[in-house]
Write a structure and sequence with these properties.
The protein is α/β, with parallel strands linked by helices. Helices cover 43% and strands 16% of the residues. The protein contains twelve helices and eleven strands. Helix 5 runs antiparallel to helix 6. The chain is globular and about 45 Å long. The protein starts with a helix and ends in a 10-residue tail after the last strand. The N terminus and C terminus are likely disordered.
Length: 305
């Protein structure tokens, strides 16, 4: 992209003065882009070692408890550590923020039930976003953005002048992190009564539109999908309901639960199924064979999806 370091530095300084983050193309997938400011580049250089693989959580709507169950198993068995890169879209972005914050997955499930009960009583469409913000503000610790910086990538979709995926991995405050997660979850006309939302002076919508399971900064990324990957024609998925297809909900049921909050017993079942599916995957991928440390001083060179 740049001929030399001097040209690169000049470009970043110019963009910073304009108050606009630069857009960097993924050399592996040229259509995938993410935001990087000069500060972000320097912060990434300071991260000498990360744990590979990273874990990417798909967009999932209100099937969020499935991801929580997966995360619980991965944390318990040592796959996800404090050095493990994470990435997510929509509900996947929320679970990444929750994991990085250090909260227990059971506490997150309880918070999800509070959100679900509110929406069952007062409705979901046009007001889910406000309820989500309130729950995140109460649930996430004040230093959540610090814990996520350089580790968690949140996917959003910029819609002008053409839809393209952006990955955000630096957050100025807890509010900025919540804004990123909110934007990543913004289904047009569903979270709020408007077709899009502004994030960092960009008109954006749900990250799952362009980055359904975004790449992490690790050398390898394990993808986690809350829907049956095979039926969706998705390839290269690590953990999904396909891991354990017995006694599964139908795609229609999953879609309904993704858009409207299910009863608490269903949320518990989704949580248990996520845990069980991750356990099946873990049996086939022992942690001692999978986890290794990488010298990852560059965000672009280590990106594999």
């Amino acid at each position: 992209m740049f001929k030399d370091d001097e040209e690169s530095e000049s470009y970043f300084l110019k963009r910073r003065k304009e108050g606009i983050a630069s857009v960097v193309e993924d050399p592996v997938q040229p259509e995938v882009v993410w935001e990087q400011t000069e500060k972000d580049v320097e912060a990434e250089k300071s991260l000498k070692t990360v744990t590979s693989p990273g874990f990417s959580f798909s967009a999932a709507g209100l099937l969020f408890p499935y991801h929580l169950g997966v995360a619980k198993l991965l944390i318990e068995k040592g796959y996800i550590k404090e050095t493990t890169p994470l990435a997510g879209s929509s509900a996947g972005a929320i679970v990444c923020a929750v994991v990085a914050s250090g909260a227990s997955m059971q506490e997150a499930l309880d918070a999800t039930k509070i959100l679900a009960q509110d929406c069952r009583l007062k409705g979901t469409a046009f007001r889910l976003g406000a309820v989500l913000r309130e729950v995140l503000e109460r649930f996430l610790p004040d230093d959540a953005h610090i814990r996520c910086n350089g580790r968690v990538r949140v996917a959003v979709t910029q819609i002008l002048w053409r839809p393209r995926g952006l990955l955000i991995d630096q957050f100025d405050s807890k509010e900025d992190l919540i804004n990123a997660v909110f934007t990543s979850s913004f289904i047009p006309g569903y979270l709020a009564p408007r077709p899009a939302t502004f994030f960092r002076n960009r008109l954006c919508i749900d990250g799952g539109l362009t980055l359904f399971m975004p790449p992490t900064s690790a050398a390898q990324t394990v993808r986690i999908c809350a829907f049956p990957a095979g039926r969706l024609g998705l390839q290269g998925i690590g953990i999904s309901p396909d891991c354990n297809p017995e006694n599964r909900a139908t795609p229609r049921q999953l879609l309904n639960w993704a858009l409207e909050p299910a009863e608490d017993d269903i949320l518990d079942k989704l949580f248990e199924q996520g845990y069980a599916d991750a356990a099946v995957w873990a049996q086939e991928n022992p942690v001692e064979d999978l986890i290794r440390d990488d010298d990852s001083s560059s965000i672009g060179s280590s990106l594999v999806q």
